[in-house]
Amino acid sequence: MVGYWLLVQFSEGAFSRYPVYVEGVFYDSPTISPSGTVKLSEEFVKENKLVYVDVRLEDAVEEFRYLGRTIPLDLYRDSGYLPLLVISTPSGKTLSGIRVCEPCGSFSFHILEKKYLDCDACHTRWNVETLKAVEGGCGDYPPPLLPSSVGAWIEINLSQTKLRILT
Asked: Which residues contact 26 (CB under 8 A, 6 or more apart)?
């Protein structure tokens, strides 16, 4: 029995150290370049697992189109911010995207059972590794992914959004 327990513990690796429940934590001091790149600490993301970043827009934007979807910002902070999320997954991947569930108008999520990204409003669940729908009414609307690079810093490229970011 002890051998089986050790085998399970070692085979799960980082997954066994990943929290069962994760709430989003705000990262308040991102660096924003004139080209529209948001930079934040990779260490902070690895430690907190689900990180929120609010990026101030030059002008208020009620909605915009991205990847064929209409992203509503009129319900969030007077349309003056782009809400982002960055996820450090149990497998060690880093995902970044726009923090929104369009149909229900939510901008808040948490991670459940080490495997689901769960909308705080409608409780639609997506696989945290792939953002593929698992259950719920808003399954076709996971947070839209943004291109990013990961090193000591996570750099999120916002140029594809065509939004003007306040630097």
From this structure: 51, 52, 53, 54
Cα–Cα dist 149/162, whole Å = 19
Q: Helices in the chain by DSSP H: which ranges? A: 2-12, 14-17, 42-48
Closest by CA to 83, choosing from 56, 50, 45, 47, is 56
Q: Give every CB contact of residue 17 below 8 A, 6+ residues apart in sequence.
A: none
Q: Residue 8: is its pLDDT beyond 50? A: no
In which domain, by residue range, is 122 found?
20-161
Backbone φ and ψ of 62, nearest 5°: -75, -35
Structure tokens at 116: 């689901």
Q: Where are the alpha helices (DSSP H) in 13-96?
A: 14-17, 42-48
Number of domains in the chain: 1
Which one, of 144, 111, 103, 150, lies nearest residue 19 by Cα?
111
| Residue carrying the six token digits 């991670």 | 111
CATH number at residue 69: 2.102.10.10
Q: What is the pTM of this model?
A: 0.90
pLDDT in tens, 112-163: 999 999 999 999 999 999 999 999 999 999 999 999 999 999 999 999 999 9
